[in-house]
Design a protein that fits this description.
It is built from no helices and 11 strands. It has 123 residues and is mostly beta strands. Strands 2, 4, 5, 6, 9, 10 and 11 form a 7-stranded mixed β-sheet that branches. A 4-stranded antiparallel β-sheet has the order 1-3-8-7, with no helix packed on it. β4 and β5 form a beta hairpin. The model has no long low-confidence stretch (mean pLDDT 97).
């Protein structure tokens, strides 16, 4: 069984920072393209950041570039998302996903998903 488990979601103030974690079971993150997606209230699920199997960043979504950092730790078999300078519009459910094929910004390109962790940015 493959399971992705996100953690770290919380309620934070605008301008604050928050780290998210994604622990993988039954799948080796070092062998897979991994990504973070998010879905805000009333919005479609959108890609946030994508990382290569070797740990090099593939891309960031335009709305988070310069503020978020995706990384991985092969020893822990985990993927991380460090979020800085948070804005209210960053509010949403954040999901970790493992890629299969297709357009990496398309959620249908991913074969495994975690259950999500909630991030709320408000004063």
């Amino acid at each position: 069984q493959v399971t992705l488990v996100e953690s770290g979601g919380d309620s934070v103030q605008p301008g604050g920072s928050l780290p998210l974690s994604c622990a993988a079971y039954g799948l080796t993150v070092g062998y897979n393209v991994m990504a973070w997606f998010r879905q805000g209230p009333g919005k479609e699920r959108e890609g946030v950041a994508v990382i290569k199997p070797g740990g090099d960043v593939l891309a960031y979504g335009d709305s988070v570039k310069g503020r978020f950092t995706i990384s991985q730790d092969n020893a822990k078999n985990a993927v991380y998302l460090q979020m800085n300078s948070l804005k209210p519009e960053d509010t949403g459910m954040y999901y970790c996903a493992a890629y299969l094929n297709g357009n990496m910004w398309d959620r249908e390109a991913y074969r495994f998903w975690g259950q999500g962790t909630q991030v709320t940015v408000s004063s």
